[in-house]
Amino acid sequence: MELLPFSLFLLLSSWIDLRVNRIPNWLTLGFIPLSLFYHFLWGEGLPFSLTGIVYAFIVLFPLFFFRFLAGGDVKLGLGVAAFTGWQVFLESLLYGLIIGLPLVLLLAWRRVGWQGFKTTFSRYGIILGTRRYLAPVEGEMAGLKVPYGPALALGAALAVGLNHFNIFTLVS
């Protein structure tokens, strides 16, 4: 039963990110205090959530700084860490990154098709051959903004599920 708010958080953030390519602050920043409150009263304790938030910030802020993740994805990770703790957060991030590549390629394929993929890889071949930068053109995969929140949410759901049922854990 305690996983219901977490599941709704993941589903809603994924759905919104797929629809508008953005995860709203009211959702992520609202879930973090809710997680703190839950763990303070009934869960593993306030240090459990706070440690998760600190670890998540340490890991995710450089990814945000170097533009690998957007701000909403980072706040989604902070929400996951506040609820699951640092160990399951690290697993969920790993799973999210593994799930993310095929998911991003699938979403990009859906938007630009085979021609967009061909154009992108041709441009990369020219860049490698000439050692000169060519900017992405319209309809190319490299110019797309593809939501990564659903991949992170799927990774979090997988990590929580595997840990909850004691099937598999990477961090002990």
TrEMBL record:
It comes from the Bacteria. Keywords: Membrane, Transmembrane, Transmembrane helix. The chain crosses the membrane at residues 46-66, 78-109. Pfam families: Peptidase_A24. InterPro entries: Prepilin_IV_endopep_pep. Residues 6-104 form the Prepilin type IV endopeptidase peptidase domain. This is Prepilin peptidase.
